[in-house]
Inverse folding.
């Protein structure tokens, strides 16, 4: 029987570096883009183009197109992942610093654990897990609570609420993914979801009137570069690295991007985006990250449902 040699160490390190730093940097790129392009329209352009590229590449390689039933499942997930999660993230980043947005979305494992305990019954509420959930929710309270601003400017309440809804929507989608009839090829599945998401986001942008008053020629080169970065680096290159890693490393190791991305986003937001890092941001970030680490390393009562990547998405 032919044995498969393990990948070279530099390839593994490069792939980890990509999902750590590229996905962490996309939050700042989003903030740059939504300053000039309406949020749902910008998200629609990002995922429509990325979806077309992934779908077209997989068809070129001979992967069959999704069936009507699979397109229906992909479109349903696209509503949860792209319209509610990413659409609200792009919308919120007009009101909330990119670093804070990344930390808020790092609470996805918190909401997934709550759903597994209450609805799916795949997790038992232990003292350790309960404490981790309280710490995570406490971190969110520190980040958005006006009473605990610790000298920093308060976070926009509407933006914070949108990010919480986005995190909950993603956690629901992650729980449903294995239950829906999706294409067996993961790249085709993600391409179909992104393509459907891009169409739905664009329709949402039209419904919200984002096309009115928007002039393509008025968008600066910096905003277009941010969009190109989100499409190429965030949605295509990083996703490819994720898919490759998930076949060569354990899901636990690959899932560490959830701990690193918020830190990268906070640091880049501070040094490149001029966003303040004060006591509230530091305390809230640490509480959320501690909660996520404890939750994701807690053994489950039943076999674990593998979570979606944030950018399989993209």
């Amino acid at each position: 029987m032919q044995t498969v040699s393990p990948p070279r160490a530099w390839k593994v390190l490069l792939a980890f570096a990509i999902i750590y730093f590229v996905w962490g940097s996309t939050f700042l790129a989003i903030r740059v883009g939504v300053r000039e392009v309406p949020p749902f329209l910008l998200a629609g352009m990002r995922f429509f183009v990325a979806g077309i590229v992934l779908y077209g590449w997989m068809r070129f390689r001979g992967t069959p197109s999704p069936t009507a039933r699979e397109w229906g499942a992909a479109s349903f997930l696209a509503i949860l992942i792209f319209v509610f999660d990413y659409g609200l993230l792009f919308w919120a980043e007009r009101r909330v610093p990119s670093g804070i947005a990344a930390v808020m979305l790092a609470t996805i494992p918190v909401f997934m654990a709550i759903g597994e305990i209450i609805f799916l019954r795949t997790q038992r509420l232990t003292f350790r897990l309960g404490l981790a959930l309280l710490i995570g929710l406490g971190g969110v309270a520190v980040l958005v609570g006006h009473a605990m601003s610790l000298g920093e400017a308060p976070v926009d309440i509407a933006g914070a609420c949108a990010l919480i809804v986005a995190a909950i929507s993603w956690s629901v989608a992650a729980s449903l993914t294995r239950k829906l009839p999706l294409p067996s090829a993961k790249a085709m599945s993600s391409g179909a979801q992104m393509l459907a998401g891009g169409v739905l986001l664009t329709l949402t942008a039209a419904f919200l009137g984002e096309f009115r008053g928007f002039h393509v020629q008025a968008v600066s080169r910096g905003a277009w570069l941010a969009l190109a970065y989100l499409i190429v680096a965030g949605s295509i290159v990083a996703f490819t690295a994720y898919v490759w890693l998930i076949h060569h490393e354990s899901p636990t190791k690959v899932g560490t991007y959830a701990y690193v991305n918020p830190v990268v986003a906070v640091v880049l937001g501070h040094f490149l985006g001029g966003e303040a890092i004060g006591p509230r941001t530091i305390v809230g970030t640490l509480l959320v990250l501690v909660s996520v680490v404890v939750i994701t390393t807690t053994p489950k009562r039943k076999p674990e449902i593998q979570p979606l990547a944030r950018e399989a998405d993209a």
Summary: The mean pLDDT is 89.
